[in-house]
Amino acid sequence: MKTIRELLREADPLEHEPTLPSGDRDLRRQAVLAAASGSRACAGVQSSSRIAVFAIVALTLIVISSLGSRVWSPFVSDVQGAVRFEVRLAEDKPARGLSAAKVSDSGRTVYLHSEVIVDNGDIATASIVQGDDPSQYAVDLKFSESGGEKMRKATANHIGKPMAILLDGRVVMAPLVRSPIGDSAIVTGHFTKAKAERIVNGIGIQ
Amino acid sequence: MNGKYLTSALPAVLADNPVERLASLFDAHHDRLYRLARRMVASTDDALDLVQETFLKAARFPKSIPVGAADEEAWLVRVLINVRRDQWRKTSARNRHDKARFRGSDLVSGDQDPEAALIAKNAVWQALDALPPRRRAIVVMYELEGLAIPAIAALLGISAITVRWHLSMGRRDLVGALKAYIGDTNEDY
Description:
heterodimer, A: alpha+beta, Gyrase A, domain 2, 6-stranded antiparallel sheet, globular, B: mainly alpha, Rna Polymerase Sigma Factor, Chain: A, Arc Repressor Mutant, subunit A, 0% strand
């Protein structure tokens, strides 16, 4: 028989787990700092360092131009895959330049940015995984190296906001971004097995 | 839209270095917060999320963070517990238990009777999950971190009597849930 303290110590996860990998910590650090930069932007604080201004302008232009090349890609991927896959950043509130879209199987509406972050061409592999409910299936996507990089870049500045996943132009889910998303994503759209297979096969066609 | 982003992004990094302050807060307190968080949620990912959410609150309200290591830590710990409390309220008791069970399966160690040890750990996690987060944090700090009651009181900004009360209520709940595993229950605070 044991004391409460002994029981707690034996069940203490920190005693049984390896120390936290510094990579995990760094990723979270990045996400927090990116969000902080974003919220300062909204506050509109004045300042004066020109070098930083130029650096940000340059960086933003690079990001915009790299995103810009993706804008037309849905039409290209029509040819590539039987199922057109896109990830776009979204907002909860309407604003100029955003287009409203209903999220499938829910009454929720999100407002999509026009830029496509990744599409079929950025997926390395797609496979079926079983959802929480045995009759429901999800699709596990692994991005290519460049696709993962694009996702990380886009999501790092979008913490706390929705990211829309579209299949054939319909938003199947719009989860909130909690941390930068990199190499993979699981699309849980409450699919039947047949639907999940169709998506996987459709996406996989190169 | 892009143009708007350009102009609104400009002042971001240039302000009086709130981002730098946040970076140093993160570096100074992340590990301490993670250790507390890990003992309050079901997985390492949940713990990382909880700590991240805490720092995101700090990012949103930079002016409300006091200066000085001890005060910063206290502020962050309180925010973390509040964030956890909001999550905890949203999750039904049943989900919490499911999660606890799932989590327990990771915990098999080299004990002589792994199955019995696992069952005991599951029971402990379920019992802890049923405690309101602030009470759980107090139990964790006292029993696992080895903090003294006055130190916990200072950290949480409450009286030592309140801490003692939470400890005894927490102990009562844990004893109730873990009767089968407990021998001597006469520990005093």
